[in-house]
């Protein structure tokens, strides 16, 4: 009897641990084909070099300067959308190279960029700037983002939480969902393009 109870407890603990270690996803992104992932690679902003390259620092500096000189909140939000796509694309390409450390950092930066995007959208709404067109553009880009998130989730199953990868991937998922909710507040119905988030 004691050994049966011990086995049951061991199974419960093991299943909980596996869920934690592998960063059990709250959302299951829809399966994307290789063709759909390649389309996302082509459609989102091209990358010259990956963060693993020492010269990437200069790209980051240039991006920060460019963002600073975008005066309106709408323009900054648009730029944040572009940068979020770049960070996620970097995470995908780094995952393809099994560069766990840099892929994890890219996912973290992706999440931060989506936070900034929503902040700028809120500012734009307060300043009575038109954000409807931007919300539709975000929805289109999010459709590309979900393909990368699916591909990353498949490729990184064995990463566990090396370099906080599972934590950063979970945060990326959460920020993705929050961004979809934010654009749905601007144009109700946009979240219906992502039904798996609400299952």
Task: Please give a structural write-up.
This protein is mainly α and 199 residues long. It has one domain. It contains seven helices and no strands. The radius of gyration is 19 Å and the shape is globular. The model is unreliable at 4-25 (pLDDT under 50).
Give me the count of strands: 0
What is the string of SSEs from the N terminus onward? HHHHHHH
Number of helices: 7
> In percent, how helical is the residue content?
over 70%
**Which whole number gives the mean pLDDT?**
87
Globular, elongated, flat, extended or rod-shaped: what is the shape? Answer: globular
Low-confidence stretches: 4-25
For the record, give the distance between the C-alpha atoms at the N and C termini, rounded to a whole number.
Answer: 39 Å
> How big is the Rg?
19 Å
Strand-pairing-aware structural class: mainly alpha
List the domain count as a whole number: 1
Write the layout of secondary structure elements.
Layout: H1 2-21, H2 34-43, H3 56-68, H4 73-96, H5 100-126, H6 132-155, H7 165-186
Write a brief caption for the model.
70% of the residues lie in helices and 0% in strands. It has 199 residues and is an all-alpha fold. It has one domain.
Q: Main attributes?
A:
about 200 residues; mainly alpha; 7 helices; about 0% strand
């Amino acid at each position: 009897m004691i050994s049966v109870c011990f086995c049951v407890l061991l199974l419960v603990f093991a299943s909980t641990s596996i869920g934690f270690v592998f960063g059990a996803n709250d959302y299951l992104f829809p399966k994307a084909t290789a063709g759909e992932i390649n389309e996302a690679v082509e459609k989102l902003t091209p990358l010259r070099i990956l963060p693993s390259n020492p010269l990437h620092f200069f790209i980051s500096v240039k991006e920060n300067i460019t963002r600073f000189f975008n005066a309106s909140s709408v323009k900054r939000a648009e730029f944040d959308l572009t940068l979020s796509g770049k960070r996620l694309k970097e995470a995908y390409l780094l995952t393809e190279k099994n560069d766990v450390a840099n892929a994890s950092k890219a996912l973290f930066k992706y999440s931060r960029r989506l936070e900034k995007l929503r902040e700028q959208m809120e500012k734009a709404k307060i300043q009575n700037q038109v954000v409807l067109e931007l919300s539709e553009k975000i929805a289109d880009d999010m459709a590309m983002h979900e393909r990368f998130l699916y591909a990353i989730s498949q490729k990184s199953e064995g990463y566990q939480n090396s370099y906080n990868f599972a934590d950063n991937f979970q945060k990326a998922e959460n920020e993705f969902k929050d961004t979809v909710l934010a654009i749905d507040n601007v144009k109700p119905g946009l979240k219906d393009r992502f039904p798996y988030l609400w299952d």
